[in-house]
Amino acid sequence: MAGMTSSARPLLxxxxxxxxxxxxxxxxALALKTGAINLGQGFPxxxxxxxxxxxxxxxxxxxxxxxYPPGPGVPELRTAIAEHQERRYGLSYDPDTEVLVTAGATxxxxxxxxxxxxxxxxxxxxxxxYDSYAACIAMAGGTRxxxxxxxxxxxxxxxxxxxxxxxxxxxxxxxxxxLINTPHNPTGTVLTRAELTAIAELAVERDLLxxxxxxxxxxxxxxxxxxxxxxxxxxxxxxxxxGSAGKTFSFTGWKVGWVTGTAELVTAVRxxxxxxxxxxxxxxxxxxxEALRLPDSxxxxxxxxxxxxxxxxxxxxxxxxxxxxxxxxxxxxxTDIRSLGETxxxxxxxxxxxxxxxxxxxxxxxxDHKKTGAPYVRFAFCKRIEVLADAAERLRKTFAP
Length: 401
Description:
By secondary structure, the protein is α/β, with parallel strands linked by helices. The chain has helices at about 25-35, 50-60, 75-90, 105-115, 130-140, 165-170, 195-205, 245-250, 265-275, 280-290, 295-320, 345-355, 370-375, 385-400; strands spanning about 35-40, 100, 120-125, 145-150, 150-155, 155-160, 175-180, 210-215, 240-245, 255-260, 325, 330-335, 360, 360, 375-380. The strands form four sheets. It has a seven-stranded mixed beta sheet with strand order 2-10-9-8-7-3-4, with helices on both faces. Strands 11-12-15-14 form a four-stranded antiparallel beta sheet. Helix 4 crosses helix 9 and helix 11 runs parallel beside helix 14 (about 385-400). It starts with about 20 loop residues before the first helix and ends with a helix.
């Protein structure tokens, strides 16, 4: 009979058996079905700078990138990435051997883990974590070891913080790699210099590799600062740093990301990457090269705009009765729904479109420890001001005491 297999063995590779349709697809479908405002998936509802879009059009018309670009990425972009790292952080990379362009940061993460992790290796990651981390560790045959960021209240307000003792205790003789994300999605935490110093010292002491996801590097607010792990003593030779154009320039569909590191590390990552997409985003690479050279005023205005949006949505959520963890970075706000008398983020998010006309994401999808993440819900604020104001008003009308 058509569709039958000759074996009872499941079709899906057992390493991926725990990963079904992503929550983002489910929630986006709910948004379409109900006409709700989608504050679930983190993509902007407006395009980035017009001059950068026109740079992509110009590349298309000039025939640049319409055929396969070079495997490591077009030289113009690799040079612009190296210049960006030098100008911003004092990190020096050879664009020919120490920079690799990828199909977004997601491919960079996949390629890095597939290249550097052997079956049985342990990978320590900060929980909650972006859902592709778990899948990529599984595809590499590694074992993920979560270290949970926990709510903490200090003079700066409520935030999720890393327990450094817990991190140290998670490292064993089987640990191969630390997977670090700062600014952190979904919690909005930005690791401090003291925390990063401790992570660096641990990596050097235990001779660990580090993959650091820094895609929100230009989205930090207030007193927070983004400091790349590769800048700390002993880290340049063991750190694979990952960046992305999508988050900074609001062209997420272009899928342009990159890896920087030593020639040896980048060669290893490229060995895996070449069998994933091989190459991608040809004309867009030329446009992103121009984007990375935009004046500092662009990055400052971009950050200020997102800060205003953060304040608008955070204030609205608080007025609606949510406990809000005002993020130090990224464009996501985590809330605790126990303040509304709710405890199950999945159930809450699945009914929210009908109840309030707004879509959010249950943070439990980012946890191995589902109960720990159960009461937390994430909202994205990378939307137009009027959209955020409408969403905040809907939530106030539905939940305000």
